[in-house]
Specification:
The chain is an alpha/beta fold and 265 residues long. It has two domains: 6-205, 2-enoyl-CoA Hydratase, Chain A, domain 1, CATH 3.90.226; 209-256, no CATH class. It is built from ten helices and nine strands. The chain has a six-stranded mixed β-sheet, sandwiched between helices. A three-stranded mixed β-sheet has the order 5-7-8. α1 packs parallel to α2 and α4 (150-158) crosses α5 (160-169). It is globular and about 70 Å long. The mean pLDDT is 97. The structure holds ligand LHQ. Ligand LHQ is lined by residues 24-25, 27, 63-68, 72, 83, 86-87, 91, 112, 114-116, 136, 138-139, 141-142, 144, 147.
Length: 265
């Protein structure tokens, strides 16, 4: 598929979506949002995709919203921009689509992930980073609140004290500390980073896809459910997965003492 602001391709079940505006550290504008929608449509439509890897081209992951985009700039001659519109039209649906994607998602962060770029990475199921990477809640630096799900995910992962400190102070959080705090899954040595990402992606692509997606759904639902509701939800997912080909294969492989060959259904 040909795009201007992203790159997209799928090999061996691993779909790789690369944010590609390296001259602006992959800052996101309306045109990139449009291309992201097309790429996510492709992931949904292609049954051979078993995992989505999200990464950035050039020296960083993503610098968040493109602040030079006319849609978010104040033009003295006209009304102030409606940032709520931009969030509702572009960012909120993007987060929802990632949360509802039919395959697990893996964010591979190198360099900086700032503002909505950080939130976008954190909206993936598993977030890994190179040791030299960092996360910046840049919103307060320009008079905004964390968006793209940032206020939802931050306190859940690191607790209110750290979430508020990160968001209000807008300081750079180095990847190793982000891993220590539980904001991300792991920070890998820079030299090993791309091999670690590839290995993780291959492992996810060979996993029981539907079980992983139901796991994400259950964990997200827990934030709004009572224990009783959550137990009922788990029972429903277990009922469904107990009839799946991957469950049959998983148990057969265990009994036969061989590695499972999951097909994702
Ligand atoms: C950029 C950007 C950028 C444009 C670097 N835009 N050009 C949602 C909806 C609606 C409205 C607003 O916001 C949101 C959510 C958000 O994402 S708000 C947060 C927006 N992002 C930021 O505030 C981060 C702004 N960028 C930075 O603070 C720095 O660039 C970081 C810390 C990311 C990287 O710093 P450096 O490594 O020193 O790189 P740099 O600043 O020199 O940037 C390199 C180039 O990229 C530079 O262009 P130039 O032509 O001078 O080489 C920057 O202007 C450009 N760039 N971020 N968000």
């Amino acid at each position: 598929m040909d795009f201007d602001n992203i790159r997209y391709g799928c090999v061996d079940g691993v779909a790789r979506l690369t944010l590609h505006r390296p001259e602006r550290i992959n800052a996101i504008d309306a045109a990139m949002h449009a291309e992201l929608r097309i790429a996510l449509d492709a992931v949904q439509a292609d049954a051979s995709v078993r995992v989505l890897v999200l990464c950035g081209a050039g020296r960083g992951f993503c610098a968040g919203q493109d602040l030079a985009d006319p849609a978010v700039r104040f033009d003295p001659g006209s009304q102030p921009p409606d940032l709520g519109d931009v969030v509702e039209r572009d960012y909120a649906p993007l987060v929802r689509r990632l949360a509802e994607l039919r395959v697990p998602t893996l964010a591979a962060v190198h360099g900086v992930a700032a503002g909505a770029g950080a939130s976008l990475a954190l909206g993936c199921d598993i977030v890994v980073a190179s040791r030299s990477a960092s996360f910046i809640q840049a919103f307060s630096r320009i008079g905004l609140v964390p968006d793209t799900g940032g206020t939802w995910v931050l306190p859940q992962r690191v607790g209110m004290a750290r979430a508020l400190g990160l968001a209000m102070l807008g300081e750079r959080l180095p990847a190793p500390q982000a891993a220590e705090w539980g904001l991300i899954w792991a920070a890998y040595d820079d030299a090993a980073f791309s091999a670690e990402v590839d290995a993780l992606a291959a492992r996810l692509a060979a996993s029981p896809t539907r079980a992983l997606v139901r796991t994400r759904q259950a964990m997200h639902a827990a934030a709004r459910n009572t224990l009783a509701q959550q137990l009922a939800l788990e029972a429903g997912f277990m009922r469904e997965l107990g009839r799946s080909a991957d469950y049959i294969e998983g148990v057969e492989a265990f009994i036969a003492k061989r590695p499972p060959r999951f097909r994702g259904d």
